[in-house]
Amino acid sequence: MRQVPSKHERMEIRKAIGSRSIPGPDTGERQRGPDYLVAHACFHCRKSWKLSAESVATCPQCKANLSWMGRAFKAPKKSDEEQWKKVEALWQAGFRFLSDTGWRDVAPYPERLREVAGFIAANPNHPFRFQE
Question: Of 93, 81, 88, 83, which Cα lies nearest the Cα of 118?
Fold first, then answer.
């Protein structure tokens, strides 16, 4: 009667014939996933596109530079001119549209255009305001 090889012996046989590959050490390198897409807006055309975060793009219609809005930006309807003016006023004052999950106590952006000037004056150190 033939004796069955032990598990260690079977593994050595597999390594010798090449049917058992041994993984190398973990180098810590990971495959990079796709770039984050961030909203960019054209205030002239009143349109928004999601592009890679590092991109500096121009509007496909009017060729103006697109404004980097942030990942949480939700564009108003093209026909809602008041909301687009509000968004543009906030953007020009340095406010960006970032996710507020970690900032529960932050003052929310104003709902109407007439409230923007007071909001900007009342929030000089708002965490979503960037001084350029």
Answer: 93
